[in-house]
Amino acid sequence: MQYTVTINQVKALEWGLNSQQALLFAFVYGCPSWTKPIKTDDGIFFALSKAKIIEELPLLTDKPDTAYRMLKALEEAGLIELSSTSNITLFRLTEKAVEWNQKLDGSEKYPTPPKYKDRKNIRSTSDKSPSKVGKKSGQGSEKSPTNQDTNHQGTNQDTSQDLQDATGKPAQSRGLVLVVDRTDTPRVEIPADMPGPKDQTCKTFKVWANYAMAYRKRYSAWPVWNAKVGGQLGQLVDRLGADVAHHVAAHFLKTSDAAVLRKCHSLNELLANAESYHTQWVTGQRINGTTARQMERTEANLSAAEQAAQMVLAKRQAGERNEYL
User: Fold this and answer.
1) Where are the domains of the chain?
2) Which pTM does this prediction carry?
3) CATH topology of domain 9-132
4) Average pLDDT over residues 57-84
5) pLDDT digits (tens, 9 = 90+) for 145-177
6) Is the dihedral angle over the CA atoms 314, 318, 320, 321 positive or is it negative?
7) How big is the CA angle at 229 (ends 223 and 230), to the nearest 5 degrees?
8) Which of 132, 134, 126 is nearest to 154 (CA)?
């Protein structure tokens, strides 16, 4: 377990990270100093298993899927790039991520070693003997190395898996890029007059773009963007996950329930019942007052039929018992 994690609150707020994402990124930021570099066709990445995140950050989560969703959120924020092998997740820091470690004048608090200066989007602060990094500190050693203000006791993870194919070449990496609907660019051109965030790496860009475009299609007007809306969308992403929140937001605009229509598909309604709308999106249903009443009548009819069948069965069993008295 890592004892100390230093969070740059200024950058976390600037990048729209919540407390959990900031905690995870503070940990990920220091990983190149001790985790194993992996050469792929797309360049150098670093091995970081979901199990390792759970082990080192027990306050963050105890679920591998949750840890991976948070990594994806950091990727969407433009802070890391993700790839993978057949059995482990790979990452590397982006140029934007380096700002986490900079002073107000733009200089680095912990300058990048020269041997990594020519590698694109790579940051590492390993010492001259990388094989020793991550081993348990001996007596008298620093518990919190000045390099990262963190303690890595026993942080060597098992990354000894075979990463080469039969020809001896590095295994093909599978890059993961998410902007809108798993493509490098939005599927449709974003109108210049759309309010809200314009930076596609922003945490709320994708969910807002899908909601706003669907909203304009239905009402022929843009929804209002303000600080409250940004906060609500951030909560929606946290609750549903960055991979699906934008789908649910667009599906929400197809709802024709009278109560939702009266409020012009307000985000208050979407956020209040986010999990319900997620289920509707997954199942392809749009439940309104009419469909709810139909479902209620169907359930009532089934219940009445079951009760009638039970009564008939009970009478038949009582008659059979009387025949033998």
Assistant:
1) 9-132, 205-283
2) 0.37
3) Arc Repressor Mutant, subunit A (1.10.10)
4) 90
5) 434 444 444 444 443 333 444 444 433 433 333
6) positive
7) 120
8) 134
